[in-house]
Amino acid sequence: MTEGILHRCCVAFIRLAPVLFVGAVIVWSYYAYAIHMCFYTVVNVPEKVIYLIFYHPFLIMMIWCFIKTICADPAFVPTQYYLSESDLEKYVKLSAAEQKQFLEHRAVKLLVQCRTSAGAVRYCSNCRCIKPDRAHHCSVCQRCILKMDHHCPWVNNCICFSSYKFFVLLISYSLLYSIFVSATSFQYFIKFWMNIYGGEVDMSDLNNVFLFFIGLVFVLSLTGLLCYHSSLIARNRTTLEAFRAPIFRCGPDRSGFSLGKYENFMDVFGDQKFFWFIPVFTTLGDGAKFATRIAPSSVGYQSIAASSMTLEPYINLQTTPVMVQPIPRFRETSYGTDSDDERTNLKTHQKSSDPYHITPVQHKRM
């Protein structure tokens, strides 16, 4: 009992250590810049005021994004994707071929488009759920995460559907913060080395030297990171999808979810321009269903339903099969649930400006 508690405490500390380190760097940078440099090094009063006026907005936005990224709840898979106890008992008794058909029938209702390399529905044996499109199992969180990008140790959180916007804004504002600090401390970095050659050295000015060097290091690293994630946003990919292309019924396609640069940008930042650069959740969709540029496969759910008689003892289909077409986008405040407007659109089949809809297909039993 005691060993288990001690182990959990050690794991929690190890996971929090990077977050505490980043927090310590932010606190030190505030002391080194706002207090030591602006109050003790800068002599000109208007220069002090200008530096402090522009410095604090960058600092506030960076800390705001940092906190939002840390505190964002990971987007877990909705309950309808999990197998019930009764379904699980039936599932484990089936053969491999029957298990594949069993999952295919459930994928019809859930509108799952992505498949494994073998062409089967993606199923997580750890979570006992069908994986929604773009969802992956996180070994750190021990759960399947919607639109998972990666698990970031610097914020001790999964970067996924619910936190990706905050993460990108964190990188952006951290880069602006680092550029501003490095640019304004550069002249005092030069003065420090000039004083060394002149024989007049104030060791307290080492703060200015470290401030410039650390700021420059962050500028270089964050620039590369922001460019990389900007390219992912423009192509509507996650880090995992950049390394392994998502597989559809027609085969793998790295750009399967790409709908154009502007549409891809809105998928992450939302359709309300005022909130684009504010760390408020405005990401479109529910995290489980996504529009694609891929036409429905000729081997559709019609052929799957034709084989339903082989699984009659195990499956009771109570819903009408549907032919999957790209899913319409809509904005959500909770993950994995359809909004009232979306349900209305699906019932009335009214097409919005985005020409994606779901067409019911009736099937007759033989």
Task: Provide a quick synopsis of the model.
The protein is 51% helix and 7% strand. It contains ten helices and ten strands.
Describe the structure.
It is elongated and about 80 Å long. The strands form five sheets. It has a two-stranded antiparallel sheet. Strands 3-4 form a two-stranded antiparallel ribbon. It has ten helices and ten strands. A hairpin with a 4-residue loop joins strand 3 (136-138) and strand 4. The chain is mainly α and 366 residues long.
H/E series: HHHHEEEEEEHHHEEHHEHE
Please tally the β strands and state the result: 10
Work out the helix count: 10
If you average the pLDDT, what whole number results? 80
Structure classification: mainly alpha
Describe the protein's topology.
Layout: H1 2-41, H2 45-71, H3 85-93, H4 96-110, E1 123-124, E2 129-130, E3 136-138, E4 143-145, E5 150-152, E6 157-159, H5 164-198, H6 206-235, H7 239-243, E7 247-248, E8 251-252, H8 261-269, H9 301-306, E9 322-323, H10 340-348, E10 359-360
Antiparallel strand pairs: 1-2, 3-4, 5-6, 7-8, 9-10
Helix pairs in contact: 1-2, 2-5, 5-6
What tags apply to this protein structure?
366 residues, 10 helices, elongated
